[in-house]
């Protein structure tokens, strides 16, 4: 799972030679760092309908804010799981999955743009709006589930206190 100490390098070839660039980066990284060849992968990005320059400038101004929101939702979710699992890294890695795979495996071993769900024929604005709605829904769902969990936990604590008090009264009177 990527951590705060993870480093991500994204390289886009200006001449269209993705195979040559991937090979070159893999060779240089293996010579100059501790990274394993499995930590470098090609991620295919489809050609999107870009729209006008005006719409692209508008999106470029909005995307940093949306990135902060997306990052915070994911971080809150992981932090909630970490707290629920008592900071156990093994258990956490079993629960922080994407399509039943670790985040690294999901991204580095054959990630593909889901064109069925996120149609590249949509404008970038529509795609970004769709992703925003989806992340807001995930955030609301997680808040609701955490709230329900806390309510149930509170009820359980109350029942345990009542039971303990009842046993104390019986012991004193008995």
In short:
The chain has 174 residues and is an all-alpha fold. It is 63% helix and 0% strand. The model has no long low-confidence stretch (mean pLDDT 85).
Order of helices and strands: HHHHH
Q: How many distinct beta strands?
A: 0
Binned, the helix content reads 55-70%
Task: Tell me the fraction of residues in β-strands, as a range.
Answer: under 5%
> What gap, in angstroms, lies between the N and C termini?
57 Å
Layout of strands and helices, then pairs:
Blueprint: H1 18-32, H2 53-84, H3 89-95, H4 103-108, H5 124-173
Structure, explained:
It is a single chain. With about 170 residues, the protein is mainly α. Helix content is about 65%, strand content about 0%. Helix 2 packs parallel to helix 5. The N and C termini lie far apart (about 55 Å). The mean pLDDT is about 85.
Quickly list its features.
single chain, 174 residues, mainly alpha, 5 helices
């Amino acid at each position: 799972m990527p951590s705060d100490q993870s480093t991500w390098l994204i390289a886009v070839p200006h001449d269209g030679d993705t195979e040559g660039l991937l090979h070159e980066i893999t060779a240089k990284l293996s010579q100059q760092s501790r990274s394993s060849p499995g930590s470098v992968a090609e991620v295919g990005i489809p050609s999107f309908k870009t729209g006008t320059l005006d719409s692209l400038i508008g999106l470029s101004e909005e995307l940093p804010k949306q990135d902060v929101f997306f990052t915070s939702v994911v971080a809150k979710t992981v932090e909630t799981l970490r707290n629920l699992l008592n900071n156990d890294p093994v258990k956490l890695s079993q629960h922080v999955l994407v399509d039943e795979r670790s985040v690294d495996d999901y991204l580095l071993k054959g990630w593909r743009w889901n064109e069925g769900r996120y149609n590249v024929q949509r404008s970038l604005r529509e795609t970004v709006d769709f992703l925003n709605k989806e992340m807001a829904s995930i955030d609301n769902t997680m808040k609701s589930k955490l709230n329900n969990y806390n309510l149930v936990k509170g009820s359980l604590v109350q029942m345990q206190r009542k039971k303990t008090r009842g046993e104390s009264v019986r012991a004193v009177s008995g």
